[in-house]
Amino acid sequence: MADVTLPVRLNHMRAVDLIRKKRDSGEHSREEIDFLISGYTRGEIPDYQMAAWLMATWIRGLSGAEIASLTEAMLHSGEVITFPELPAKKVDKHSTGGIGDKTSLILAPIVAAGGLNVPMISGRGLGHTGGTLDKLEAIPGFNTALTLADFRRVLRECGMALIGQTAEIAPADKKIYALRDVTCTVENVGLICASIMSKKLAEGIDALVLDVKTGSGAFMQKEEDSVRLAELMVETAKRMGKKAVALITDMDQPLGRFAGHSHEVMESIEVLKGRGAADLRDLSIELSAWMFFLGDCSKSVDQGRVRAEKLVASGEALARFKQGIGLQGGDPGVIDDYAILPQARNRAEIKSQASGFLSATNCMEFGIALATLGGGREKKEDQIDPGVGLEFHKRIGDRVAAGDTLATIYYNSAGKLEEAQQRIADSFVLSGHQPPPKKLVRRIIGA
Ligand code: URA
User: What would the DSSP string read from start to end of 233-251?
Assistant: First the structure.
């Protein structure tokens, strides 16, 4: 008699009851979360019920125990890879997302050229932010959907491989991520932690560097929320036996000069050529330095920084990116000829109406404007237009005269141009006083 209690309860579990429980602020058991995640991954729970549960969860929140259960259920929805054939340490980086954040394209080849392995499972655009997979797919032929066997082969041959969640690896995140993107259920500490850590822990890494964004272009706009997310993720990694550190970094303005898929590929290659925007270069070097340090490739972060700078200056990191593009089916000619990337046909400039100092930006609006022009998704099945983009001509603290160009829009269809122009123009905040310079790395958690 005693043995039948649990199976009977599990047999009778229904998604609708779990949605009601979360709506009414209840706390789920591990079994309930397993039921939701495995049922949704197998296609037994439909999108509309998962969307309702996600919204209830977004509003009511998750306890620490629920976040741990969710992360583990999502991690074990697919395979957890190991790489016994690769002697060098496996290290990865993940960002919580922002505008113009393209550091993965720069640091993966730097760190691979430095002797570590970077098995990177990334995401597509999420909410107002761009995604590494969509950016890489701007390169003609680039395949982000490698089989597990090809993922291993590319990693063995060049030390880096960048793919998305698959039916084999982190399938629950693949489905839930796409649903959250279009149901306004991204900005929740527990859902972000489970999403990021389930893919990262599935990659067979030894160490992880987290770039947790904070500010007006981040999912967590307040620094204390970003710190909480960072602590949660570092704690989760350490509980699973991985070394981890989180850098809380500024997202009060776009990173680098460009946002938009083709433009971000070009800007990343520029940094690998030793040029490009200073903030983008500095953050890419800093994150690489931490990866070298956690991967036992340098004795200190300072030494890691020197190593990363040398690999850029010598051209080794650029050569590694070229090799990686070719191995994943992309056209390596992109390194020397940006014209092979999809380009927008038209451009429009946003001029300042007033004089002063640029004191702040409503950075999230830049991402929404870009999506409006076709550079993001409103529905799961939407196709990205990789050619559209934004170029930012002023940084916070810069002096602005009336008539100066604040931003350039690269677009194809004029349908939503006016709306995008308005959003962008309204998102530059001028004041009479020069604000103090922004610190790129605000805090480090778990060092
Ligand atoms: N990046 C992810 O992979 N998942 C999130 O939920 C947010 C950022």
Answer: HHHHHHHTT-EEEEEEEE-
- pTM confidence score: 0.94
Pocket of ligand 1 (CB under 6 A): 96-97, 123, 126, 186, 191-192, 195-196
Instruction: Please compute the mean of the pLDDT values over residues 82-107 and round it to a whole number.
Output: 96
Give the whole-angstrom CA distance, residue 24 versus residue 16. 12
Cα-to-centroid distance, 298 and ligand 1 (Å): 29
Q: Is the pLDDT confidence value at 12 over 90?
A: no
Ranges of beta strands (E only) in 31-126 are 91-95, 118-122
Measure the CA–CA gap between 200 and 101, rounded to whole angstroms.
18
Quickly tell me which residue has 């982000």 as its tokens.
144
Q: List the Cα angle 18/21/23 in 5-degree steps.
A: 110
Residues annotated catalytic, as ranges: 94, 173, 180, 195, 199
Considering only CA atoms, which residue is closest to atom 5 of ligand 1? Answer: 192
Contacts of 389 (CB under 8 A, 6+ apart): 258, 259, 260, 261, 262, 263, 264, 344, 370, 375, 409, 410
If one counts every other C-beta atom within 10 angstroms of the C-beta of residue 296, the result is: 14
